[in-house]
């Protein structure tokens, strides 16, 4: 059975048409609709009417606020082995539910996500600023949380998930409102499938997610980053890298300012020195913080040498990307450098993780003990 959870906060004009469209779409399916309502208007009365007309409709009336907890509370009283969430304001076309269900049956995915950001999808319902925030938020999630990369729309408020995959978060009280991210990171998700859709303009009423929500989102990301040590490591690496950039720039400015006549041979040498000092700076912090659990004191020189090789490779990559993009005729001089830096950060992280600070294989130990 499919349990459709609909969180509602002041959606009285939308619940009935949502109900109608869901019933039309899921005709012939075994399903229930669980409204989880925190409204201060007469939305619950509208829902109660639906409950009286159709026994598949249920209402959980709460006395608190919170989109994420509303969804989890709904999951907890749901009876289905498949759980879905859809907004109560018709921004997610209910007709999509049939596609989600079909995709789940075809692919046996643990989670199916309707995506605005894939061929055939459309983020249309979002206004200019919201669209930018949505894109930025999505990029941030993809960079910081590797589990979120299984879907092209990890911020979607609508999705379908198996009860088994959602089980680990059913007793949680997440602070953030992106329940899908919570599921991807803390849930038991192996396989995900995306289905394209067009985000619609709101039916009636107002969005409840304002500026505070953006801050909450960042807090949620940081909270989720600490769940998986791999994600934490990458964030540390990126933050340390940022301090390295500052060190690099400050040193360079100091040496070329003219106040201190440190480097007579001009900018090229100054740039070279500043860069190498920054590499050393980064190495020290990454060794004592980011990969501290993998560092062996008797291998420090090996770590350092490999770190240096990787860092120089990263610098080379940044420059190469810059020249390739320029060669392609891209004229935004900051963007191409930025693209190069992002590529270098991602690649050098990987190389450091898999090579510079590679964990010593336990196989060596068995060998030694066998010899004895
Ligand atoms: N029960 C309950 N409690 N429901 C709530 C609450 C609450 O505190 N806050 C909001 N809702 C309900 C709304 O009534 C609506 O049905 C749904 O949750 C989404 O709220 P909106 O206010 O319409 O959010 P939005 O359109 O700005 O954002 C939606 O789309 C985003 C995609 O960009 C949400 O689904 C986001 O999660 C999603 O990321
Ligand atoms: Mn909405």
Strands ordered across the widest β-sheet: 3-2-1-4-6-5-7
| CATH superfamily membership of the largest domain | Spore Coat Polysaccharide Biosynthesis Protein SpsA, Chain A
By helix and strand content, what is the structural category?
alpha/beta
Major beta sheet, specifics?
Answer: 7 strands, mixed
Q: Report the portion of residues in β strands.
A: 5-15%
**Radius of gyration computed on alpha carbons:** 26 Å
Instruction: Briefly note the CATH topology name of the largest domain.
Output: Spore Coat Polysaccharide Biosynthesis Protein SpsA, Chain A
| SSE ordering | EHEHEHEHEHEHHEHHHHHH
**Low-pLDDT segments, ≥5 res:** 366-372
Apparent shape? elongated
Distinct bound molecules: guanosine-5'-diphosphate-alpha-D-mannose, manganese (II) ion
Distance between the first and last residues' Cα: 61 Å
Number of strands: 7
Number of domains: 2
From the 3D coordinates, which CATH architecture of the largest domain would you assign?
Alpha-Beta Complex
pLDDT averaged over residues: 90
Determine the number of helices (DSSP H or I, runs of at least 4 residues).
Answer: 13
In the CATH scheme, the class of the largest domain would be: Alpha Beta
Summarize the structure.
The chain is an alpha/beta fold and 372 residues long.
Task: Tell me what you see in this structure.
With 372 residues, this protein is α/β, with parallel strands linked by helices. The chain folds into two domains: 2-227, Alpha-Beta Complex (Spore Coat Polysaccharide Biosynthesis Protein SpsA, Chain A); 230-356. Helices cover 55% and strands 10% of the residues. A seven-stranded mixed β-sheet has the order 3-2-1-4-6-5-7, with helices on both faces. Helix 9 packs antiparallel against helix 10 (267-290), helix 10 (267-290) crosses helix 11 (300-327) and helix 11 runs antiparallel to helix 12. The model is unreliable at 366-372 (pLDDT under 50).
């Amino acid at each position: 059975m499919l349990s459709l959870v609909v969180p509602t906060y002041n959606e009285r004009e939308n619940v009935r048409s949502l109900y109608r469209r869901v019933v039309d779409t899921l005709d012939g399916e075994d399903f229930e609709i669980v409204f989880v309502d925190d409204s201060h208007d007469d939305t619950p009365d509208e829902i109660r009417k639906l409950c009286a007309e159709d026994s598949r409709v249920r209402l959980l009336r709460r006395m608190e606020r919170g989109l994420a907890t509303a969804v989890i509370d709904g999951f907890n009283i749901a009876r289905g082995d498949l759980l879905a969430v859809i907004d109560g304001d018709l921004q997610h076309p209910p007709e999509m539910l049939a596609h989600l269900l079909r995709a789940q049956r075809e692919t046996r995915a643990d989670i199916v996500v309707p995506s605005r950001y894939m061929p055939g999808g459309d983020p249309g319902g979002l206004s200019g600023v919201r669209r930018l925030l949505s894109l930025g938020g999505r990029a941030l999630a993809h960079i910081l949380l590797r589990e979120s990369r299984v879907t092209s729309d990890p911020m979607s408020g609508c999705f379908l998930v198996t009860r088994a995959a959602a089980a680990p978060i059913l007793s949680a009280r997440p602070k953030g409102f992106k329940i899908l991210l919570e599921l991807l990171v803390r849930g038991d998700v192996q396989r995900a499938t995306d289905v394209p859709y067009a985000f619609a303009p709101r039916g009636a009423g107002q969005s409840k997610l304002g500026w505070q929500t953006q801050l909450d989102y960042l807090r949620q990301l940081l909270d989720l980053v600490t769940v998986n040590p791999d994600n934490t490591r990458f964030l540390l690496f990126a933050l340390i890298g940022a301090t390295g950039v500052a060190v690099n720039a400050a040193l360079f400015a100091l040496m070329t300012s003219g106040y201190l006549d440190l480097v007579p041979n001009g900018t090229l040498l100054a740039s070279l020195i500043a860069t190498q000092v920054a590499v050393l700076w980064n190495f020290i912090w990454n060794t004592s913080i980011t990969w501290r659990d993998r560092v062996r004191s008797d291998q420090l020189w090996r770590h350092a040498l490999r770190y240096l090789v990787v860092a120089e490779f990263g610098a080379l990559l940044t420059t190469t990307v810059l020249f390739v993009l320029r060669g392609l005729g891209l004229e935004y001089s900051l963007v191409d450098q930025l693209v190069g830096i992002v590529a270098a950060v991602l690649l050098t992280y990987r190389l450091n993780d898999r090579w510079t600070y590679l964990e010593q294989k336990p196989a060596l130990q068995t060998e030694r003990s066998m010899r004895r």
